[in-house]
Design brief:
This protein is mainly alpha-helical and 108 residues long. It has one domain. Helix 1 runs antiparallel to helix 2, helix 2 runs antiparallel to helix 3 and helix 3 packs across helix 4. The longest helix is centred in the middle third of the chain and has 21 residues.
Amino acid sequence: MRPDVAAFIASKKTSDVQQKAMIQFAQALQGALEAEVSDPQAVASSARAITRGVGCIWRQFSASEAPDIVTAIRSRTMNTKERVLAYERYAHALSGSVLRRPGGNPCD
């Protein structure tokens, strides 16, 4: 996770479990930006991590807060053209994949 994203998360007045949920999601997004898109297993692993990260945020925040938290972390993670293009390459590699919603507690 980049320092600017970590600083944003640290600036939020949230509980420890909410901080951990945000960190989990931010790390998953960063992993997608760095995933080797020619490796289907790496892409699938990143997708599972993002799905779990989003699920964890929804578990730890209210339904009115969770979408804004996800959007804020996503926008800070992909805040340059280079990062957006990296995410688009990842999304293209993921295209056509079928993902299952994680069972149980999605939080690490």
